[in-house]
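Quick one:
INPUT:
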């Protein structure tokens, strides 16, 4: 079931209009119009295809301890040959509508509104990405 939702999610990321991307932002109801547009701009900067055949390729998936959130490490197809081209998306997968809570870290507008278990799960996934990057750099210099 998650796979079919992810396919639609990735297609929307690569080819969706701004309003479709906005519909993918986690708890967008908590954001001001300016904050929402900032989130949309960040997502489109990293994920919008530069041609009709562009797509998002998943490289790694890690779930939070409760499996309500996931860290999806993706690569836009047009950046496959670019070094360090990963886009670490933190997404809510608890409903059929997958939504983006942040890229590496939660979006700024959401940070003050995240509490308790949700904050812990998102923090867990952010830390996983940062530790992964630190370990990769250590391996590269060893």
């Amino acid at each position: 079931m998650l796979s079919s939702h992810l396919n639609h999610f990735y297609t929307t990321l690569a080819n969706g209009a701004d309003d479709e991307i906005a519909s993918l932002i986690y708890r967008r109801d908590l954001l001001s119009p300016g904050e929402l547009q900032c989130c949309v701009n960040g997502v489109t900067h990293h994920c919008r295809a530069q041609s009709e055949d562009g797509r998002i390729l998943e490289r790694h998936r890690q779930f939070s301890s409760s499996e309500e959130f996931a860290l999806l490490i993706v690569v836009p197809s047009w950046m496959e040959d670019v070094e360090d081209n990963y886009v670490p998306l933190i997404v809510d997968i608890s409903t059929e509508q997958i939504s983006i809570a942040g890229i590496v870290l939660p979006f700024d507008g959401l940070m003050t509104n995240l509490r308790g278990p949700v904050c812990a799960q998102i923090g867990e996934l952010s830390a996983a990405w940062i530790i992964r990057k630190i370990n990769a750099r250590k391996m590269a210099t060893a």
